[in-house]
Please model this.
Amino acid sequence: MDSLASLTGVSPITIRRDLADLEGQGLLKRVHGGAVAIDLRGRPLPYSLRSAENAEQKAAIAQVVATIIADDMSVVLDNGSTMVAVAEALVGRPITAMCLSLRTAVALGESDAPTLVTPGGPVTPVSLRCGGAAAVAALDGFRADVAIMGACSASPVHGLTVTTHEDAQIKKSIVQASARVVLAATGDKLVRTSSFRFGTMDDLDDLVTTPDAPESALEEFRAAGVIVHLAV
Model:
């Protein structure tokens, strides 16, 4: 903070106020002694890195998502590390689940309560994500009470986006197959965008996110009629 004051010639109080304003807009994240830039554009990362990132926040999100899903519902579980946390929170629940990742299917399969469905077709190594035309066809033949989806980015301005064209096509099919769509995403994803759009806020019924999400973004989701749940 002192370095910023020296460089800019303004008081530390002014700097703190300006940093708070920029953080509120999702343009940076304040840390002890200053601030760090936020990645404003999602990019593909190895699954090992994605699974370790924000693990506690993802577990908190999963607990909230589990309260939205009632017993005996049919559910689509998207791919991604957050969905694995959701699957772990749903172990033992009597649901019918279309799992778009073998990791979520294995997690749910720890009990004999659910009915599990996987789409078949190609599986991406390490992440074990189900993809290709088989996933789209399986979703076309499935009707879900609720879909739990992830996104690389979920900007109110740019929409719901991901880093690959194939993932965008599958996510479009998830939306079409589901009566209720829940986006489960950490707050940092609400301030960036990725290359391929699969939907807008109008496609969502619920957003489950973390308290660090910019309030300005949350207000836009609420204005669009999306129910916002904060996982604490």
About this structure: The chain has two domains: 2-37, 47-230. Residues 191 and 205 are 19 Å apart (CA to CA).
